[in-house]
Design goal:
With 570 residues, the protein is α+β, with helices and mostly antiparallel strands. The protein has 18 helices and 18 strands. It comes from Billgrantia ethanolica.
Length: 570
């Protein structure tokens, strides 16, 4: 908590070149790019970093193969190049993975036509990944016996990429990078609105944890509030060329369905892409694509039935998956950028995730709409260019602000790890050696953990049963990762809450020790707060479900000729 407290103290103490409102992928990458190039930056986030859209993704880093159907080849080209650049820049984190897509009878395209499209996709992506291949139904069964091929007419396999850890961890590492470059970044600080003054922006902010208010001054204001960009623009009196419409997506985390490290892709009953994604000891299945009017969403029983129903139809399982198999649920909105004058009503399912940056040069204000993990480096560079055009000096314009540490640092880490036989301490149930995992998560900072383990081998022990997080990682998180609530660690800095059932966490003696490390005397209060929050979220979801059911029932009864207990025909 010391890091957060010291950064809050800095917020009101100077005039920043740029204040960024929002700590999702857009705000985090913008902060890292600006700070890395020498711009004085502050970043505030009203919840935790990556606490909304950026923690509810599929963990896929892909070039947008689905946009091939709408012939948006320029966007596909841009996203493929971005994907390739991320794979090269983060080789331990962003890794190529194969997608096996099964086509069933009656689908709108023949599998060989889609296979040809996969080749075009590969060529648009500069042939950076492994080549696509066509698969007969028998070949699909030979490669993935779990797939039900009884109605399959063929399929194809191609490559994209995925995040080895979770999406929120990837986002936080940009925040951590910005902090390393001297930025001021604080979670649980909300903007109450801003006003333009002759010498810049005055933004009123509030510490959500204490209620304390203060003023932050900056020459430029960037609105990177994700799904709430339009809401914050209303607070600051900004009119823009774009606005957001929202698509709700859910994923279910279930026990591992297949040992293969590939994504299984299908077309759901309504024609949309549907995935079975490896997630360490678990499998992630989804997603839905439902238009909603507000960014605050919950997973409904209908959403869950849709996902379970589609997966049970397409896989050969010993028994169908049901709600008892669900370990956790990811549910969030995709904010889709559309022209403010209209466009959100047409071809909703064809709207892309491409970002748009609206610039008000006169007011020195930027609004970032849309976006996705794949495109994050482009967002950072575009923001730097826009800020520079507004008169903000960029002292080190050529500095490379992203990517893993230099290879010589990695070699030194691995050399030290070998000398101390670190990998011999890897827990038996772990999915990979300790040295591989610590380097991917912490880079240069992993050297600190080696020192802790040398001094006390207990620091290499898994603290919470069923996870792959060590005692020394908790100590590191306390010092450097601004853990304010227990959920910040369990759900975003790690993926423990995704892969370990809540009841198993409750029974884990290591969870309380983790709380003691993170929160000291406040450990019990933070532990109780976490489980109270999960209970409240379930109650809210149930209330939303009941309200939707009542609304649907009243609509049916209101239709002419409808009778109680009988659905109106259409």
């Amino acid at each position: 908590m010391e890091l957060r407290s010291s950064n809050i103290d800095k917020l009101g103490g100077e005039v920043f070149d740029v204040l960024i409102v929002g700590g999702g992928i857009n705000g985090a990458s913008a902060a890292a790019a600006l700070a890395g190039k020498g711009v004085r930056v502050a970043l505030i986030e009203r919840g935790d970093f990556a606490g909304s859209t950026s923690m509810h993704s599929s963990n896929l880093v892909w070039g947008g193969i689905k946009y091939m159907e709408s012939r948006d080849f320029a966007l596909v080209r841009k996203l493929c190049r971005s994907r390739n650049h991320l794979i090269k820049s983060y080789p331990a984190t962003v890794q190529e993975i194969r997608f096996l897509t099964t086509i069933t009878q009656g689908f709108r395209y023949h599998p060989r036509y889609l296979w040809a499209g996969a080749w075009l996709y590969w060529l648009i992506g500069n042939g950076f990944t492994r080549i696509p291949r066509f698969l007969s139904p028998q070949a699909i069964s030979d490669n993935e016996a779990i797939i039900d091929t009884s109605s399959a007419v063929g399929g194809f396999e191609y490559s994209d990429a995925y995040l080895h850890d979770n999406d929120a961890r990837f986002v936080f590492n940009f925040v951590r990078g910005a902090l390393n470059y001297g930025a001021v970044a604080v979670n649980y600080v909300e903007s109450l609105g801003a006003q333009r003054e002759p010498d810049g922006w005055l933004t009123r902010v509030r510490d959500v944890m204490t209620g304390k208010e203060l003023a932050v001054r900056s020459r430029v204001l960037i609105n990177a509030a994700g799904p709430w960009v339009d809401e914050h623009n209303a607070l600051t009196g900004q009119s823009t060329n774009h606005r957001h419409v929202y698509s709700k997506g859910i994923h279910l985390i279930v026990p591992r369905l297949t040992d293969s490290q590939r994504v299984l892709a299908f077309f759901a009953d309504d024609g949309r892409l549907f995935f079975v994604i490896p997630m360490g000891p678990r499998t992630c299945i989804g997603t839905t694509d439902t238009r909603v009017e507000r960014p605050e969403v919950v997973a409904t029983e209908e959403d869950i039935r849709f996902v379970l129903g589609n997966i049970n139809k397409r896989l050969r399982l010993e028994r169908p998956l049901d709600q008892q198999d669900i370990i956790s649920i990811r549910c969030g909105v995709r904010p889709l950028a559309v022209k403010a004058a209209g466009g959100g009503e047409r071809d909703f399912l064809q709207l892309s995730r491409k970002h748009a940056i609206d610039i008000n040069r006169q007011d020195a204000h930027l609004s970032i709409f849309g976006g996705k993990l794949t495109d994050c480096l482009n967002v950072g560079e575009e923001v730097v260019e826009a800020v520079n055009r507004m008169g903000i000096e960029v002292p080190f314009p050529k500095h490379r602000w992203y990517g893993e540490p230099p290879d010589q640092v990695r070699r030194e880490f691995l050399h030290q790890a070998r000398l101390m036989r670190l990998d011999d301490l890897t827990a038996q149930a772990s999915s990979e050696p300790l040295s591989t995992r610590l380097w991917r998560r912490y880079g240069t900072h992993a050297l600190e953990m080696l020192e802790e383990i040398r001094e006390d081998p207990r620091q290499a022990e898994v603290l919470i049963e069923g996870t792959e997080y060590l005692r020394c990682e908790l100590h590191y998180a306390k010092r450097r990762e601004m853990i304010t609530r227990l959920e910040d660690f369990l759900r975003r800095r790690s993926k423990i809450a995704l892969v370990v059932h809540e009841e198993a966490m409750r029974r884990s003696p290591g969870l309380r020790e983790a709380c003691v490390i993170l929160f000291g005397d406040e450990a019990d209060a933070r532990l109780e707060e976490y489980f109270d929050t999960t209970r409240r979220e379930r109650s809210e979801a149930a209330a939303v479900e009941r309200a939707a059911t009542l609304d649907a029932a009243s609509t049916v009864l209101a239709e002419p000729g409808a009778e109680p207990g009988r659905q109106a025909s259409h």
